[in-house]
Specification:
Length: 518
């Protein structure tokens, strides 16, 4: 049985249309899931929408819809985007799904059985925008004396009877968890933030609401719905069949990776492990908090009107150009900025002009001059072995960087290998050898085909459609790491008599939208 790998994104609030930050998170998780599948792991990948809470209830009321009607309409934008971005999820979970109600109520009952839930009166500050409670000491004052959360959103004084979770009891167990598992929270910045927060002391958490009813009902407590984060976090367990231990999906728990944005680290690295400890459920192995995508260096917000629509960007530049740009340009874990110019420049430099050009000129030359037959081994030269060794080394670097989630570093290594191929072509000049030294030309072209195939397999998780097309052109169906490690494939392909058809370019040269003809 192969090793299991369960990866999740945050589930997104569908109270507006998806923005590029949501797209970024799905794309990063998708690349990791695809990479893990290539590595031979039994992968489960879940994404979805987080549909309860006061925010959705309020928006629905404003539009004269039921919360469920609004949730159905808005969630579809997110699942459509996931499909359009080529996100290879196994389940798109919606927190309105029936099995999710069952899972949320089951974890609630387990926490209650442990004695960790009690009824009391909550009085304190709540941010509807963040769906979060804050302590007085965390607040700042905004314009006109409005109190603001650490995320800069307005908070309101809330007072109601609610269930409390004994979070305070888990302060030491959480600190012990962080100490024993230095990689539980990554990157370092997020880890330090969380440790500092927990060291500062934890107060019990209000986990139910009575002022609205758009949520999962608290078992045996009429009038109470669960605080949206209790149900939201439980989505990860729902996806593994919880509480049914006999479920075929139960084997995926505990999750290997919860990929989230840095603003929700506290929920995933403090509340979630505390709930799980209370319910006596094993803890996920890692929470990784990625950075924020900024629009030309600016935070996106509805009020400034600079919220970028990822679907518009893919319509203009293509899905793979956007995927490549986001993963190559942003140091994974840090914030990163995008602009149309930056996407076009990066996609043209790396994909169209470097990798695309390498593949296109090599494969079309073979199609035209060798009737598509893969070149025979020919007369070798140390430069050939050197290039292939460079590709192998880049492959090792790529795989180890990807494994440790240094996605941009993996792509840097990949790009260095592409450059090495282009340098090799310039020096070996195979087109000139056609008349003078065909035997040597065969060796050069054969070396290039091997390199192109390996480079395409490596980059497949990042740009699945275009790298897949190159592998189709080469007649290569095996696309995992085992295929990469198989050095006999080329001779087998030559022997099989495979012939390349005249390839069409896979990476169009992009033109900036304003410059494009209407
Ligand atoms: O927080 N750049 O949902 P959400 C990068 N429902 N990532 C961004 C971003 C940006 N500009 N803006 C948001 C929620 N994100 C909860 C999660 S999980 C059990 C519940 C990320 O729609 C954000 O950090 O506000 C989060 O990981 C995800 O998008 C969904 O944010």
């Amino acid at each position: 049985m192969s090793e299991r790998y369960y990866i999740t994104t945050a589930i997104h609030y569908p109270n507006g249309k998806p923005h590029i930050g949501h797209a970024y998170e799905m794309i990063a998780a998708d690349a990791i899931a695809r990479f893990q599948r290539q590595a031979g792991r039994d992968v489960r990948f879940q994404t979805g929408t987080d549909e309860h809470g006061l925010k959705i209830a309020q928006t629905a009321r404003a539009r004269d819809l039921t919360p469920r009607q609004l949730a159905d309409e808005m969630s579809a934008y997110f699942s459509d985007m996931a499909n359009d971005l080529n996100i290879s999820y196994d389940r798109f979970i919606r927190t309105v799904d029936a099995d999710h109600y069952a899972a949320s109520q089951a974890i609630w009952e387990a926490m209650e059985a442990k004695g960790d839930l009690y009824l009391d009166r909550y009085e304190g500050w709540y941010s509807v925008r963040d769906e979060a409670f804050y302590e007085e000491k965390e607040l700042t004052e905004g314009e006109g004396g409005v109190k603001l959360s650490p995320q800069g959103t307005p908070v309101e004084w809330t007072a109601e009877e609610t269930w409390f979770f004994r979070l305070s009891k888990y302060q030491q167990p959480l600190l012990d968890l962080y100490a024993a598992n230095p990689d539980f929270i990554r990157p370092e910045r997020s880890r330090n933030e969380v440790v500092k927060f927990v060291e500062g002391g934890l107060v019990d958490l209000s986990v139910s609401r009575t002022s609205f009813d758009w949520g999962v009902p608290v078992p045996n407590s009429p009038g109470h719905v669960m605080y949206v984060w209790v149900d939201a976090l439980t989505n990860y367990l729902t996806g593994t069949g919880y509480p049914d231990k006999g479920s075929a999906l139960a084997r995926y728990w505990p999750a290997n990776l919860h990929l989230i944005g840095k603003d929700i680290t506290r929920f995933h690295a403090v509340y979630w492990p505390a709930f799980l400890m209370s319910a006596e459920i094993p803890l996920p192995k890692q929470v990784f908090a990625h950075g924020f995508i900024l629009n030309r260096g600016e935070k996106m917000s509805k009020s400034t009107g600079n919220v970028a629509d990822p679907m518009e960007l893919t319509r203009l530049y293509g899905v793979d150009a956007l995927r490549y740009f986001l993963l190559r340009e942003v140091a994974f874990g840090n914030d990163g900025s995008f602009s149309d110019e930056a996407i076009v420049t990066r996609a043209n430099a790396d994909l169209a002009n470097s990798f695309g050009n390498l593949a296109q000129r090599t494969l079309s030359f073979i199609a035209k001059n060798l009737e598509g037959a893969l070149p025979e081994t020919g007369r070798g030269d140390p430069a050939d072995a050197e290039l292939l060794a460079t590709i192998d080394e880049a492959g090792r670097e790529f795989r180890s960087a990807f494994e440790s989630l240094a996605l941009n570093q993996a792509l840097e290594a990949w790009m260095r290998a592409v450059f090495a191929c282009n340098q090799y072509i310039d020096v070996q000049a195979p087109w000139a050898l056609r008349k003078t030294d065909p035997d040597r030309m065969h060796a050069v072209l054969g070396t290039l085909v091997r390199a192109i195939r390996d480079l395409a397999i490596l980059v497949l998780p990042v740009i699945p459609e275009s790298a897949g097309k190159i592998l189709d052109q080469l007649g290569q169906d095996a696309r995992d790491h085992a295929a990469l490690d198989d050095k006999g494939w080329y001779d087998a392909a030559v022997t099989s008599g495979f012939r390349l058809a005249l390839p069409t370019g896979v990476f169009p040269r992009l033109v900036l939208a304003e410059e494009a003809p209407a």
